[in-house]
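Pilot study result, target chain (120 residues):
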Amino acid sequence: MMSSGPIEPSDVILNSSYPNPIVVPLDFVDKQSRPSRDELNIDESGLYMMSQALEKFMRRMIQEATKNGTLELNYDTIAEFIAQSEFRALKDFFPQRMEFGDIMEQIGRNAQTTSSATKQ
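Predicted structure:
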């Protein structure tokens, strides 16, 4: 009998029934990880663990981005959650929105900095 702790690869026998219902289909995880699967030497139990990790990430992101359902889940709440969490390495995939005027101002500042640096 498995403990309630983390799943170890030895806990999941290849081609066996899995201990929990699978929310993220293994076929999806397989297709997404196929390019690096040979390099990482991932077997079916590894796909299951990746499926569980993805599910936990999605649940946490949705729960925290919506403040337990008090906010609407939309792009802005996801981008804000990612920017302020330990997942901020993903912020290039979910950048926070900027006003067009703010972007143009930033471009202008960058151009001034570049031109003053080349004059020196």
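One observation from the pilot: The chain has one domain: 9-119. A full batch analysis is planned for the follow-on phase.
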